[in-house]
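Trying the structure run again after the queue cleared.
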Amino acid sequence: MTRTDATAAEMVLRPALPDDADAVADVQLASRRAASMPPGIHSDADVRAWLARRIGEDDVWVAEIDGLVVGYARFTPTWLDDLYVAPAHAGAGVGSALLDLVKSLRPQGFGLWVFEVNEPARAFYLRRGLVERERTDGSGNEEREPDVRMEWPGSA
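Done. Tokens:
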């Protein structure tokens, strides 16, 4: 396990377990609702079921503070598919800790997609060394919203 400080509390980063599925879904649903991004197109129940299946298939790590899941990252060998932080913990270092973890586990680099309208997320990634590689009109995503492909080129 990796430990770091987030505000005054102790944060623990650890692989997600099947029992974390509801907490992971809670984080994603709350974060998406609070973020500068298009509304989700799937029902909460569908999101919960889908994320429960992803735990164990993809790499999923959670950030805990005082035993509560406050963020998570879901990634494959080449993509960071999800990085969400509970709104009450935004700006406290949780997202940075999760992104640093993914960088350490994927030192060869990885890509991600972020909605163009989600300027806070794009700025977060740019400040942490990711670069914009491509912009689309959104025709390739479910929400049909313009997005940006970003990349962390790796530590080499």
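The beta strands are 2-6, 9-15, 59-65, 68-75, 80-85, 110-115, 131-136, 147-152. Worth checking whether this holds up in the mutant runs.
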